[in-house]
Amino acid sequence: MNVYDSERMGEALNMAGYHPVDAPDKADMVILNTCHIREKAAEKVYSELGRLKKLKDINEDMIIGVAGCVAQAEGEEMLSRAPTVDMVFGPQTFQALPDMLEELADNRAEALEQNGHIKKAKGVVRTSFPAEEKFAPLFETPRQPLVRSPAAFVTVQEGCDKFCTFCVVPYTRGAEVSRAALEIEAEVISLAQKGVSEITLLGQNVNAWHDVDAWYDVDADDIGLGQLLRRLAQVDGIERLRYTTSHPRDMDDALIEAHADLPELMPYLHLPVQAGSDKILKSMNRKHTAEDYIKLVDRIRAARPDIALSSDFIVGFPGETEEDFTATLDLVKQVTYAQAYSFKYSPRPGTPASEEAQIDEDVKSERLARLQDVLNAQQVSFNASQAGETLEVLFEKQGKKLGQMVGRSPYLQTVHVDADETVIGKILPVKIEKAHANSLSGNIFGV
Ligand code: 5AD
Ligand code: SF4
């Protein structure tokens, strides 16, 4: 989501006369697009700002902006904690960037007049939630991808109403809002015309997406993500569809059927479970049990037997006993994942779980290591199961090594081959020769 938002900021700035450079010391303006999900991510912002301050000491006209969820959560406070910052704006307000720049220019002119110096200029802060406007500029501005890639993100939904007790998203990204189906379709058509063949639909709760205004030719008054995917699969040039991130509660029958019916819908699903103990799931306010999740996985696998599953896990949530943690390990062994993300619980200010008694840091680290051992072994064996197979790979870019091209398998694995740039943008069959822990390598079939 932040990658997508950063691209949109780039486009807004492009129209305001800016163009990208490849290093901060060559820039007139640097914007950090930040994440508040765990403490580590949020703290990184301040160390990064320390580095930028050194550049600003040399070039005092440099504009430093902080965007995203840390900006949203800290607002004005950020200006006093890091005086080097000129603009603080939340994830719903980046469309107003040209406006903010004008305001900053006025503030700098005023400071220059009053103090003979721009250093004391008032910073600009935008952290309100204009929900109804959130998607509007995305539609008004035809997308000009700054980085040309055959795989693009499209935001279809933002925010979250689930209020898991560990999570800041409902506070930083706001309430759940869906983007209109016809706008999404128009954006996908425009991307397809620019050569994009793979679309990943984005939302914090992407499968809660709905549009109450049906398409003229669809006989339904509440269209969900399954229907949207069916529609987008018909767009000329779109060969692959993905979506992320889903909540187990919102995996409805229509969406599961789409996995059975749509060849364009890739056999990969990120479906976070967080934990395997019902007691912990309840205190996380996840609204599902371990058994609900396992039954859901069975239904999804019945629809698409080869689907690769991914998940998020939190260990060391307040109240997690050894027995609760073992239930997480048991669930992982029962489901078997192709890959997964796992984290130590990080108390976030303002969230209910942060007020509970906390688990010892060493216990968290030890449990995380044990969980990751099991998850890594599952990932290695999933990748190994593909050695010798032929997979359709969409080539996206050059690899790090000379003459190496990189693409993605249907299961979202990174695949390396030796080839020239002409393969970029194409979907080609690749015979997998070697499986590694985090990627595959092989040869384009017939070459
Ligand atoms: N501590 C640790 N992990 C968290 N996540 C969200 N909030 C926290 C937190 N406070 C994880 C969840 C979520 C993923 C995006 O980040 O697993 O699914
Ligand atoms: Fe956060 Fe996801 Fe829970 Fe929403 S559903 S509160 S985004 S973890």
Walk me through the structure:
With 447 residues, the protein is of the alpha/beta class. The protein is 36% helix and 21% strand. Strands 15-16-17-19-18 form a 5-stranded mixed beta barrel. Helix 9 runs parallel beside helix 10, helix 10 (253-261) runs parallel beside helix 12 and helix 13 (322-335) runs parallel beside helix 14. 5'-deoxyadenosine (5AD) is lined by residues 37-38, 166-167, 272, 274, 312, 314, 343, 345-346, 348.
The count of β-strands is 19
Structural shape: globular
Biggest beta sheet attributes: 5 strands, mixed, barrel
Counting DSSP H or I runs of 4 or more residues, the number of helices is: 14
How much of the polypeptide forms β-strand, as a percent range?
15-25%
Going across the biggest sheet, name each strand in turn.
15-16-17-19-18
SS class? alpha/beta
Helical percentage: 25-40%
Distinct bound molecules: 5'-deoxyadenosine, iron/sulfur cluster
Radius of gyration over all CA atoms, rounded? 23 Å
Q: Write the CATH fold name of the largest domain.
A: Transcription Regulator spoIIAA
